[in-house]
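User: Hey, my collaborator sent me this sequence without any context and asked if I could get a structure. I don't really work with proteins. Can you help?
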Amino acid sequence: MKVLGDDYAVVIRTLGTGGDKYELLLKSLQEQTCPPKHIYVIIAEGYSLPKERIGTEEFVYTTKGMWHQRIFGLQYASKIGDVSYILALDDDLSFNCSFAEDSIDCINERDCDILIPSILDPNASGQKVVDVWSLRNLFLSLQGVRFESRRSKYRIKIAPTAGYIANTRLEPACNPTQSGQFAAFWIKADRVAQLELEEEYWIDDTKYALPDDQVFFYKAFVKGLKLYNHNDIVVRHLDHGSSNPNRLLDYSFATGRNFLIFWHRFLYLRQKSLWHRFVHIVSILYRLGMGVLMPSVQSLRQKKLAPIRAYIQGVVSAVRYISSPEYKKLHKL
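Assistant: No problem. I've predicted the 3D structure and written it out in structure-token form, which is a compact way to encode the shape of the chain:
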């Protein structure tokens, strides 16, 4: 099936400060074998438009927020209704000239609703395979954050701790998944509305909007959409990074708050049996405990307790939000 460039739109979330790295993204889009019909640049209010231009961009201002800008962009592009596919991007990525053509071919071949490419560091030669018995995997497993497993049929599967189970040795290159990286992905335009993404704006109540990837992709999975990850369709992450001096504290607070809300909304409330609810309660209590214990060792050595306090404050904030009338108004999954 021949891919037509005017059948997809690109949605880029940015603050307009990407500089050379943003320019490389624009160049990647300009060089596509099938160029997009639209390039929507979703920029936060109060920020100047980027000086890097290729002349075909359409600038749209909206409220600042990593989740808000992404969701607003997807809804904006889908409501216009003149494309079949939407490519959502951060502003510090690059890819080869056949990226769009290869991606849409894969979507049609697999009949999937969402396709997540492999996102690599600039100098990486390919997708990293994680040893089940590596120190990295064992450390993250002890925290309840990430588990490497060869038994999972999913590239990423959400765990009862609100962490995830990964299988980095799956064959072939394209595999079903329950989550992925949020920096770049494709979605069929007519699938956006059914996700009711405006109900998850609680993620932007913290300065660090995580786990935006898990919330988006797992909600799509729960709603019945077909998600695939492709190791051979590659995006390079140029890592524009953040200049926020309080990033560690913001990250710690968001980790304590948002993962607990995610666990309660997307995992615990969906369990039908008392046994499964008990398993999920034990799992999240374990993760919360390890979330305090393991960082505390490092914090005590460095005599910096602020991240631990921020994490605990985040957990308290999550409990308050879960008990609030605002939370109870959200549609149950």
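In plain terms: The mean pLDDT is 92. You can pass these tokens on to your collaborator as they are.
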